[in-house]
Automatic annotation (TrEMBL):
Protein name: HTH cro/C1-type domain-containing protein
Organism of this sequence: Kitasatospora acidiphila
Chain ranges of the HTH cro/C1-type domain: 51-86
Matching PROSITE patterns: HTH_CROC1 (PS50943)
Compositionally biased residues, Basic and acidic residues: 164-177
Amino acid sequence: MTAPPPSEVPTTLAGKLDLLLRRLAVTIGHTPSVRELAARTAPADGDPPSLSHAVINDLLNGRKTNPPCTTIQAVAQAFDAPAAYLLPGWDDLTGLTAYQQEPGIREAVRLVAGLGPEAAAELVAAARDIRARRSLSTAPVPEVPDVPPLAPEPTRPGRRRGGRRSDTEMAARAADN
C-alpha cells in the first residue's frame, strides 16, 4: 500500500469519515447505511444507539463540522476507529489505530518518552529490523491506509421512481401491451 499524496489525505471531519466509511465497507463486505452506522453506536448493554441516523448523515455530508465529544466517541465506535483521528490535527490513522489496539505499543511509547530523538530513532530502527526479519516491507508505513473507493450500489429491481417516462419509453411500453 502506498500513502496517498498529501493533497488527498483527509483533514476535514467529513473527509475522514468518508475514508473510515470506505475502510469499514472493505472490512464488513458492503457499504453500511446510515441506519446501520447509527445502530453501531449502541452501547454493549443493550441501550438504544447514542446517535440517530440523521446526525450521522449530517456528519458524513459535512453539514455538522464541530460535534461534541460524546458524538465523536460514538462515531468512532460506529466506524471502529480511534476517536482521536476525528479531531483536527490528528491525521495518523495507522499510528492511532495501533496505539489504541496494542497495549505493547502504548508501553513502548511510554518507555521512549523523555529519552530524546536518539532513542526514538533506535526504536524505529529496531522496528524496521523486526519487519525485515519477518519478511515484511521496511518501507515507511503510510499514516493513512490506501482504501479503495466505494463500489457503486447495485440498482434494485422494481418500480422506477422520480420522473416521467420519455415519449419513446411510453410508445415502446404501449407497443408491448
